Amino acid sequence: MTGTRPSAAVTAWLLEGDAAIRWQVMRDLLDEPDQVWQAERAKVETHGWGASLLARQGEDGLWDGGVFVPAGFTRELWQQEGQPWTGAAYALNDLREWGLDPRAEAARRVVRLVGENGRWDEGDQPFWEGEVEECINGRTLADGAYFGVDMAALGARLVSERQPDGGWNCERANGSVRSSFDSTINVLEGLLEFERATGGSPEVQAARRAGEEFLLERNLFRRKATGEPADPAYLLLGHPHRWHYDVLRALDHLRASAQISGAPADPRLGEALAHLRGRGLPDGRWPLDVRHGGRQWFEVDDGPGMPSRWVTLAALRVLRWAET
After folding, report:
1. Distances from the Cα of 292 to the Cαs of 81, 125, 185, 245, in angstroms?
2. What's 73's DSSP letter?
3. Which of 45, 59, 95, 291 has the most CB atoms around its CB within 10 Å?
4. pLDDT per residue over 225-281, tens digit each?
């Protein structure tokens, strides 16, 4: 197996996965014609994880009776179980990542009902207007832009909330003047999805580039001032990401960003890419290092320490881009 194409055995293993995995393998690793991978992508609405998650949607369009926090989920439960991932906000994140076609009937229903009935737990704002924190609003911007909602106001708001060092921090409202890796990647993904959907604007493009530079100046995981790793967890390859940062998530974002700009991989990615290569297994797959705990609908991987189709897919397409 090389960085540009998986072995036959790894390809077969990837294609044994859910439709949400298969269509991206076809598009990003196998260069299948558009009609082939789009036909596979259409199955996300009616098969596997996508169909299972859509079936759990309530009559009001929400999941588990809530937007961010499920109905009846108490502070005590949060302390016992960890953050829950079963509300509407995270269901939309999953459906976007899995590739539910925005033109599908189920997608249109989700957008309409969540817009009509979804109110944020913090502040009671209508769902598509966004919440308070940049992390949450970055993912909401990505979801709305992907599913065809007019997200111009939230995009402009996030641009205006950028920190002096180029990125974002969910603690800005509490006085923070420095960016965080976690907040920044969530906003960057939202701005990129907005740019894909609308073409963006000079302001949006400049903000995205500044946020990416914040990460690149730190080699994707180091503190700028000391060169020390900012957080050992950033080197662990996790999935689903939820709001958490890791180097593979950043690399995959920069790969997707380069599809718009046409830019080659930045030389400052070298250390992160070497780490990614070093995490690969001898058989050409990559393991899941961490699963972020908390209530969720169902598993989409075999668990930490086991080969992960999601991590392997992302690693292979990143290396394919970086080694081209």
Report:
1. 11, 27, 17, 11
2. -
3. 95
4. 999 999 999 999 999 999 999 999 999 999 999 999 888 999 999 999 999 999 999
